[in-house]
Amino acid sequence: MSLEESTPDTVETAVTTAEEIEDLLGDLVLDRDDHLNAPGFVVRPDEVQDTLFRLRDEAGFDHLSCVTAQEYEDRYESIYHLKKYDDPTDEVSVVVPTPTDDPVSESAEPVYRTADWHEREAYDLVGIEYDDHPDLRRILLPETWQGHPLSRDYDQDRPQVVPLREHANPLQEDHEGEGDTMFLNIGPHHPATHGVLHLKTVLDGEQVVDVESDIGYLHRCEEQICQQGTYRYQIMPYPDRWDYISAGLLNEWAYARVAEDLADIEVPEYAQVIRTMGAELCRIAAHMLAVGTFALDVYGDFTAIFMYAVRDREKVQNILEELTGQRLMFNYFRLGGVVWDLPEPREDFFEMIRDFLDDLPEALEEYHDMISANEILQVRTVDTGVLPPEVAKSYGATGPVARGSGVDYDLRRDDPYGYYDELDWDVAVEDGCDNYSRLLVRLREVEESAKIIEQCVDLLEDWPEDDRTIQSNVPRTIRPDDDAEIYRAVEGAKGELGIYVRADGTEKPARFKIRSPCFSNLQTLPEMSNGEYIPDLIASLGSLDIVLGEVDR
User: Fold this and answer.
1) What positions does the domain NADH-quinone oxidoreductase subunit D occupy (predicted)?
2) Cis peptide before 343, with omega less than 30 degrees from 0?
């Protein structure tokens, strides 16, 4: 059965309340769990698929946003964070406990394809095993790794022995007998892989038969580092390093949102406007780099397109440096607001932004002339890397990858935060479902970000001086209630960037889980590439706009 056949086109019943969900699940529910943003339902480990099928097919929860795994003293837990693409504020958490001596649970992969990688990560780092998983093996660490780094009894001093298999045949048995196939390593040190990504590619002639993304080369234990830091002071410097290229303030906002909701911290309106302006500047910088590197991947234009994009990105970086004091690792957000006000003299700062916005329409017209209207690029990208909308949803794709497949999903509008719901702007959606559509979405989003920034500047220029509160009164030490659990997300440059936090009554989180949009988006690569040619594979990978620091975390 194909994915399109197994995914319902319509949902007869729209279930929204916790009571309706409990009635729908019936005797599948063992207990209720308190999550701050979504009702939680505890189910047996052998009834995961029945539960998720009901929630997807009968209640409309078609988006498996995140899978969190953790270990307690008396049990393991897998938590499936479900949303609706039509309404991401309608959320539910499915909690699956397993005993410590037998941490085995049913896999959610037959219901949501995105569970494939998420459950592999849970197995790799925590040690939970998933029955019926199509390919349960490590994903970030080598197969020879001893132990699970996020388990309670992990011995970090245990030596790791990695055997040298110099005579191993990379063509496994499942590829034998396919005819004249060839195994090709792409990466992990190759400019077209956008970082340290290894693509294990099987070719039949020049057509891709199979491609597997081998990740983990840039795994930096960000979740573990955050679990060792205090909520108020020590975690915020780290989000800049997830998507380290351009999305620093967007990453910071993801942590700020979850921590502020967890600790019930209000953010002053003035600080919300500054946050919104800064976030959209980061989005433009990210998209400029994405467009420039995509053109470089597709038809090798370095001197014009790539350098043009870097030129305009540098203008944004100059503005952000004036605002934050840094060009890449901004560390500008604080819980409850921002660290300092706009630079003085304010008039010069506003003029700097307006000069950039005034030049942007002409620059975008040049990009359309040289990129989207380029015949070579059109031949390489139109009708290649096709990702149908239902396939995109099943893989949990978000951001320009989903919107390029006609999925009208944007958390800035659909789950409002900051100052977005007070401003006039549109969500950029294209229904071509191909590499070309994802390019167009990013170019259109630059225009929409410019609209948002201009409105923010207008507001900030006229803001009364006596009402410029940049940060609310935040307790020196933040200690959320024991066992408080929450998952919140923002619209990053690449898509839904979410964080799950479980508190234990101390000033440090007991569990800190990062939901990277790049991690879920990269899973779609085989769907886009199998049956196509090598150059199409490179174009499809470039259209995903991944950053391996965020994929691996």
Assistant:
1) 303-553
2) no
Q: What are phi and psi of 501, to 5 degrees?
A: -130, 135
| Per-residue pLDDT reduced to its tens digit, 10-38 | 444 455 788 889 888 899 999 998 888 88
Q: Compute the distance between CA of residue 548 and CA of residue 553 in angstroms, rounded to an integer.
A: 8
Domain limit, last residue, from 80, 97, 131: 131
pLDDT digits (tens, 9 = 90+) for 33-92: 888 888 999 999 999 999 999 999 999 999 999 999 999 999 999 999 999 999 999 999
For tokens 């693509």, what's the residue? 199
Alpha-carbon gap, residue 234 to 231, rounded angstroms: 7
Nearest to 354, CA basis, from 281, 424, 286: 281
CATH number at residue 106: 3.30.460.80
Domain range enclosing 125? 18-131
Which residue type is seen at 214?
D
Q: Rounded to whole angstroms, how far apart are CA atoms 502 and 72? A: 11
At residue 498's C-alpha, the angle toward residues 496 and 500, to 5°, is 160
Cα-only R_g, the chain: 23
Q: Can you tell me whether residue 511 is helix, strand or coil?
A: strand
Token pair, residue 429, equals 């959606």
Beta bridge partners of 59: none
Q: Which amino acid is at 303?
A: T
Q: Is 333 helix (H, G, I), strand (E, B) or coil?
A: strand
